[in-house]
Amino acid sequence: MRISRRTIIYCMIISLLITALVLAYIWSAPYRLKREIAQRLPINSRINGDFILPSTTGSKLSLQQLHGKVVLLTFGFTACADVCPLGLIRLHKVIERLGRDANGLQVIFVSFDPNRDTPYLARYIQHFDPSIIGVTGSEEEIDDITTRYGVVYIKEKTKTKGYNFTHNGYIYLLDQQGHVRKIYEVNAPVKEIINDVHLLQKESALADH
Protein backbone atom coordinates (compact mmCIF):
# COMPACT_ATOMS: atom_id res chain seq x y z
CA MET A 1 0.00 0.00 0.00
CA ARG A 2 1.49 3.26 -1.15
CA ILE A 3 1.22 6.35 1.03
CA SER A 4 0.57 9.50 -0.89
CA ARG A 5 2.93 12.41 -0.80
CA ARG A 6 0.17 14.60 0.62
CA THR A 7 -0.32 12.19 3.55
CA ILE A 8 3.40 12.18 4.30
CA ILE A 9 3.53 15.99 4.29
CA TYR A 10 0.43 16.13 6.48
CA CYS A 11 1.99 13.72 9.00
CA MET A 12 5.22 15.73 9.04
CA ILE A 13 3.31 18.96 9.73
CA ILE A 14 1.37 17.32 12.58
CA SER A 15 4.62 15.93 14.03
CA LEU A 16 6.29 19.36 13.87
CA LEU A 17 3.28 21.01 15.52
CA ILE A 18 3.29 18.48 18.36
CA THR A 19 7.04 18.96 18.84
CA ALA A 20 6.61 22.73 18.88
CA LEU A 21 3.81 22.51 21.46
CA VAL A 22 5.88 20.22 23.70
CA LEU A 23 8.92 22.51 23.47
CA ALA A 24 6.78 25.59 24.16
CA TYR A 25 5.37 23.90 27.26
CA ILE A 26 8.86 22.94 28.50
CA TRP A 27 10.29 26.42 27.87
CA SER A 28 7.31 28.14 29.47
CA ALA A 29 7.43 26.03 32.68
CA PRO A 30 10.16 28.14 34.34
CA TYR A 31 8.31 31.32 33.40
CA ARG A 32 5.06 29.99 34.85
CA LEU A 33 6.84 28.92 38.06
CA LYS A 34 8.53 32.32 38.38
CA ARG A 35 5.19 34.09 37.91
CA GLU A 36 3.55 31.82 40.49
CA ILE A 37 6.29 32.59 43.03
CA ALA A 38 5.96 36.34 42.38
CA GLN A 39 2.22 36.09 43.01
CA ARG A 40 2.62 34.07 46.20
CA LEU A 41 5.49 36.19 47.53
CA PRO A 42 5.08 39.71 46.12
CA ILE A 43 7.72 42.34 46.84
CA ASN A 44 6.69 44.66 49.67
CA SER A 45 8.13 47.98 48.50
CA ARG A 46 6.81 49.89 51.53
CA ILE A 47 9.12 48.06 53.94
CA ASN A 48 12.79 47.94 53.10
CA GLY A 49 16.21 49.37 53.75
CA ASP A 50 19.77 48.31 54.35
CA PHE A 51 21.54 48.75 57.66
CA ILE A 52 25.08 48.57 58.95
CA LEU A 53 25.18 47.51 62.60
CA PRO A 54 27.64 45.88 65.01
CA SER A 55 27.02 42.13 65.09
CA THR A 56 27.79 39.03 67.11
CA THR A 57 30.29 38.02 64.41
CA GLY A 58 32.68 40.62 65.83
CA SER A 59 32.34 43.01 62.90
CA LYS A 60 29.65 45.20 61.42
CA LEU A 61 26.98 43.55 59.30
CA SER A 62 24.92 44.99 56.47
CA LEU A 63 22.08 43.43 54.53
CA GLN A 64 24.00 44.14 51.36
CA GLN A 65 26.66 41.67 52.49
CA LEU A 66 23.99 38.99 52.51
CA HIS A 67 22.80 39.52 48.95
CA GLY A 68 22.55 36.09 47.35
CA LYS A 69 21.02 34.58 50.49
CA VAL A 70 17.45 34.41 51.73
CA VAL A 71 17.19 36.30 55.03
CA LEU A 72 14.80 35.82 57.94
CA LEU A 73 14.88 38.98 60.04
CA THR A 74 13.28 39.42 63.45
CA PHE A 75 13.41 42.01 66.23
CA GLY A 76 13.38 41.68 70.01
CA PHE A 77 15.39 41.85 73.24
CA THR A 78 17.21 39.29 75.36
CA ALA A 79 15.11 39.81 78.49
CA CYS A 80 11.95 38.87 76.57
CA ALA A 81 10.17 36.05 78.36
CA ASP A 82 7.85 34.77 75.64
CA VAL A 83 7.67 36.29 72.14
CA CYS A 84 11.42 36.25 71.33
CA PRO A 85 12.15 32.71 72.56
CA LEU A 86 9.10 31.42 70.68
CA GLY A 87 10.23 33.07 67.44
CA LEU A 88 13.87 32.01 67.78
CA ILE A 89 12.94 28.40 68.54
CA ARG A 90 10.83 28.38 65.39
CA LEU A 91 13.67 29.83 63.36
CA HIS A 92 16.04 27.19 64.73
CA LYS A 93 13.60 24.52 63.55
CA VAL A 94 13.53 26.14 60.09
CA ILE A 95 17.34 26.03 59.91
CA GLU A 96 17.43 22.45 61.18
CA ARG A 97 14.79 21.12 58.78
CA LEU A 98 16.21 22.90 55.75
CA GLY A 99 19.37 20.79 56.04
CA ARG A 100 21.85 21.66 53.30
CA ASP A 101 19.49 24.29 51.91
CA ALA A 102 20.13 26.31 55.09
CA ASN A 103 23.49 27.26 53.53
CA GLY A 104 21.50 29.70 51.39
CA LEU A 105 19.73 31.22 54.41
CA GLN A 106 20.73 33.70 57.11
CA VAL A 107 18.67 34.41 60.22
CA ILE A 108 19.22 37.81 61.88
CA PHE A 109 17.99 38.89 65.31
CA VAL A 110 17.96 42.67 65.82
CA SER A 111 17.94 43.81 69.44
CA PHE A 112 16.08 47.06 70.07
CA ASP A 113 17.45 47.15 73.65
CA PRO A 114 21.13 48.01 73.05
CA ASN A 115 21.73 49.42 76.53
CA ARG A 116 21.15 46.04 78.18
CA ASP A 117 21.75 43.58 75.34
CA THR A 118 25.10 44.56 73.83
CA PRO A 119 27.25 42.53 76.31
CA TYR A 120 24.95 39.47 76.28
CA LEU A 121 23.62 39.25 72.73
CA ALA A 122 26.12 36.70 71.39
CA ARG A 123 25.60 34.36 74.33
CA TYR A 124 21.83 34.73 74.10
CA ILE A 125 21.78 33.84 70.40
CA GLN A 126 23.96 30.76 70.99
CA HIS A 127 21.20 29.27 73.15
CA PHE A 128 18.97 28.98 70.08
CA ASP A 129 21.23 28.39 67.07
CA PRO A 130 24.92 29.19 66.48
CA SER A 131 24.25 30.21 62.88
CA ILE A 132 21.92 33.06 63.86
CA ILE A 133 23.55 36.49 63.79
CA GLY A 134 22.57 39.09 66.38
CA VAL A 135 22.88 42.81 65.67
CA THR A 136 22.22 46.00 67.59
CA GLY A 137 23.39 49.60 67.58
CA SER A 138 22.81 53.02 69.02
CA GLU A 139 19.28 54.08 69.95
CA GLU A 140 19.22 56.33 66.88
CA GLU A 141 20.25 53.47 64.57
CA ILE A 142 17.66 51.15 66.10
CA ASP A 143 14.94 53.80 65.81
CA ASP A 144 15.80 54.17 62.13
CA ILE A 145 15.68 50.47 61.22
CA THR A 146 12.58 49.70 63.32
CA THR A 147 10.75 52.62 61.71
CA ARG A 148 11.65 51.43 58.21
CA TYR A 149 10.46 47.91 58.96
CA GLY A 150 7.34 48.97 60.80
CA VAL A 151 8.38 47.32 64.07
CA VAL A 152 6.12 48.17 67.00
CA TYR A 153 7.72 48.00 70.46
CA ILE A 154 6.52 49.87 73.53
CA LYS A 155 8.78 50.47 76.52
CA GLU A 156 7.04 49.97 79.87
CA LYS A 157 8.25 50.47 83.43
CA THR A 158 8.12 47.46 85.77
CA LYS A 159 7.40 47.27 89.49
CA THR A 160 11.11 46.64 90.16
CA LYS A 161 12.01 50.05 88.68
CA GLY A 162 13.29 48.39 85.56
CA TYR A 163 11.61 48.26 82.17
CA ASN A 164 10.19 45.81 79.67
CA PHE A 165 8.89 45.91 76.11
CA THR A 166 5.62 44.93 74.49
CA HIS A 167 6.26 44.09 70.83
CA ASN A 168 4.79 42.18 67.90
CA GLY A 169 7.60 39.69 67.15
CA TYR A 170 7.09 39.62 63.39
CA ILE A 171 9.48 37.62 61.20
CA TYR A 172 10.43 39.19 57.85
CA LEU A 173 11.28 37.09 54.80
CA LEU A 174 13.77 38.83 52.51
CA ASP A 175 14.84 37.57 49.11
CA GLN A 176 18.37 37.38 47.76
CA GLN A 177 18.26 41.06 46.73
CA GLY A 178 17.06 42.27 50.14
CA HIS A 179 13.39 42.80 49.22
CA VAL A 180 10.77 41.96 51.84
CA ARG A 181 8.58 39.21 50.38
CA LYS A 182 6.48 38.15 53.37
CA ILE A 183 5.86 38.96 57.03
CA TYR A 184 5.00 36.14 59.44
CA GLU A 185 3.34 36.17 62.82
CA VAL A 186 5.64 34.83 65.54
CA ASN A 187 3.62 31.58 65.67
CA ALA A 188 3.69 30.97 61.91
CA PRO A 189 3.98 27.26 61.00
CA VAL A 190 7.57 26.15 60.47
CA LYS A 191 6.51 24.27 57.32
CA GLU A 192 5.11 27.46 55.78
CA ILE A 193 8.37 29.34 56.32
CA ILE A 194 10.42 26.45 54.91
CA ASN A 195 8.20 26.24 51.80
CA ASP A 196 8.61 29.98 51.19
CA VAL A 197 12.40 29.80 51.59
CA HIS A 198 12.46 26.99 49.02
CA LEU A 199 10.33 29.07 46.64
CA LEU A 200 12.77 31.97 46.81
CA GLN A 201 15.69 29.61 46.25
CA LYS A 202 13.93 28.20 43.17
CA GLU A 203 13.21 31.71 41.93
CA SER A 204 16.89 32.62 42.25
CA ALA A 205 17.95 29.43 40.44
CA LEU A 206 15.58 30.26 37.56
CA ALA A 207 17.01 33.79 37.31
CA ASP A 208 20.52 32.33 36.97
CA HIS A 209 19.58 30.39 33.84
List keywords for this structure.
209 residues, alpha/beta, Glutaredoxin, 2 domains, 5-stranded mixed beta sheet, two-stranded antiparallel sheet, 9 strands
CATH architecture of the largest domain: 3-Layer(aba) Sandwich
Distance between the termini: 50 Å
Structural class: alpha/beta
Shape: elongated
Query: What share of residues are in beta strands?
Result: 15-25%
- The total tally of domains equals 2
**Helix segment count?**
6
Provide the succession of SSEs.
HEEEHEHHEHEEEEH
Computed over alpha carbons, the radius of gyration is 24 Å
Number of E strands: 9
CATH class type of the largest domain: Alpha Beta
Low-confidence stretches: none
CATH topology of the largest domain: Glutaredoxin
Helical content stands at 40-55%
Question: Mind summarizing the main beta sheet?
Answer: 5 strands, mixed
CATH superfamily of the largest domain: Glutaredoxin
How do the strands line up in the largest sheet?
Answer: 5-4-3-8-9
